[in-house]
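To whoever is on call:

I kicked off a structure prediction for a single chain this morning and the downstream step that reads the tokens threw a length-mismatch warning. I double-checked the sequence; it's 527 residues and nothing unusual in it as far as I can see. Pasting both halves so you can look.
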Amino acid sequence: MGVILQPQADLRVRNIAEILVRQVSRRCDANLVMSARAPFKIELMVEGGIGTDGYEIADGPADTLRIVGNDVRGLLYGVGKFLRTSRYDQGGFSPSTWRGLSVPQGTFRAVYAATHFMNFYEAAPLREVKEYIEDLGLWGANAVIAHFPTWNFKGFDDPAARRSLLRIRRLFKAARDVGMKMGLIQCPNQGFTSAPKEIRAAKFPDDLRRRGSFGVNCCPSNPTGREYLMKLYAELFEEYKDVGLDYIVFWPYDEGGCGCSDCWPWGARGFPKTSKDLTLMTRTKHPNLNAVLSTWVYDTPPAGEWEGLARLLAEEKSWANYIMADSHTDFPLYPLEKGVPGGLPLLNFPEISMWGRSPWGGCGANPLPARFERLWKQTDGKLSGGMPYSEGIYEDMNKVICFQFYWEPDRRAEDTLKEYIAFEYSPDAVDELLKAVCLLEETWINIGPKSLDAHDLVKRAEAKLTLNAKSAWRWRILYLRSLIDSEMFKRGGKMEGEVLKQAFNELTRIYHAEKAHSMPVRPPVIT
């Protein structure tokens, strides 16, 4: 089989063609080549008229299948659909029979790839991270968002800061190379550890201990503090002038906030005012920048933040493009019942990484389809997309479920999982693994007898997989999760024994978590 391109195809289209060839070759013994002489050809095209980010898969001339993207990203998504609906057997490749047209409904489909605590995004070889970003693109992600953790560095000259800036730049380049967008997520009053004491932020209420503070936030109502922050963020945004920034996501808490009389309530006063100032400043260098204003943990405890923000944006909203909302539990009621402040498009921020168990990914895959479908239904068609918070690869299924919600709001999590299982594992294993995933979600917080049933289903499914699928990391983290839970149940919850030791060690190697902070992803160590 051959892959053919239009003569005018740019580097991004050629990169997408290479992804297609690599994906097929990794899953089976078929040999795709860049050639127009093959007996069966897959033609990749970019041609407007479908709809932003949309694609069409159709039969072309004799022995030719066409994947047409409305734009470069649309082509990436079309290739993803083609790959997911094809079949990979040990002896060969059966091209997809799916034909049709698809256009996403959500405009903002980003992944927040956290680069901290030596998690996967920070510690893994760049090639693996690059390919993982491309994988998320195949499922519909259109942007990669990263955070520069100033609270971890003395200043821009700190060698660790330079490494972080370079790592983020490389993540951005991986996204840009296949047509995806990029952006930063920052708290507008977050300073370096060297920030002068006299400009530090005042304490604020944190009754539920969710707002966080490393003690380096600065007060933007203090003239010297404001000058410090404007200079810091001007320099940060300058770091990415050549690659370009499409989004800035402003974050209110954890890290962030100031409780002085001029800034508080932070979510209604100091936070939106400083975010606006930084947006207008940044657009002088990044004129197409979209500003996303997060409302994370607003009014916990109540302080009039939602109401105050609504009044503020009713007066002036031209600088903001989206409002982001979510919480540790159910979706916030204010924007659902009283409307989105400023009438702006609403986004969510699914907590796919941290919910329910610690260390977060330390026991393998954490599929939670029922949880995220329940939360999605709470928003009742009011969202224009969102940004899952990712600490690594262990929540891969959760990301995919969210991206498909953004693409097609009425799609069920189960339907996405069926497509995921058929693609990543085997079409023959869908029934067993759907049941296993449901059991793994039921036992995510409390392992029990159903953990044994889940592991039995996973072992039965494994017999139906190709050698390629069984050796891939997506299978290993699912298999190890079921093995760990069943073994721990047998041992009464105790983390001991050679089976668990080897399982945790393998996960550590897959995550590249040998030096990871224990909180996010480092699996337990059994000596």
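Update from on-call: the warning came from a stale cache, not from the record. Cleared it. Sanity check on the structure: The chain has three domains: 2-102, 108-417, 420-511.
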